TrEMBL record:
Residue intervals passing through the bilayer: 21-45
Protein name, UniProt field: Cytochrome c oxidase subunit 2A
InterPro entries: Cyt_c_oxidase_su2a, Cyt_c_oxidase_su2a_ba3
Pfam families: CoxIIa (PF08113)
Keywords recorded for this protein, A-Z: Membrane, Transmembrane, Transmembrane helix
Length: 47
């Protein structure tokens, strides 16, 4: 019984990893949206 508790995966590490991944995805998405908005504004100014 003690060995099975010792081999159980720790969820704290997984949750931190997923939170970091989610934050990174949000940052990349924000950069893409800002770049798209800038290009669209430039297009609208020239049209």
């Amino acid at each position: 019984m003690k060995a099975s508790k010792k081999n159980a995966p720790q969820n704290n590490y997984d949750e931190r990893s997923l939170k970091g991944t989610f934050a990174s995805v949000l940052v990349v998405a924000a950069i893409i949206v800002v770049m798209w908005a800038g290009v669209f504004a430039l297009y609208m100014a020239r049209v």
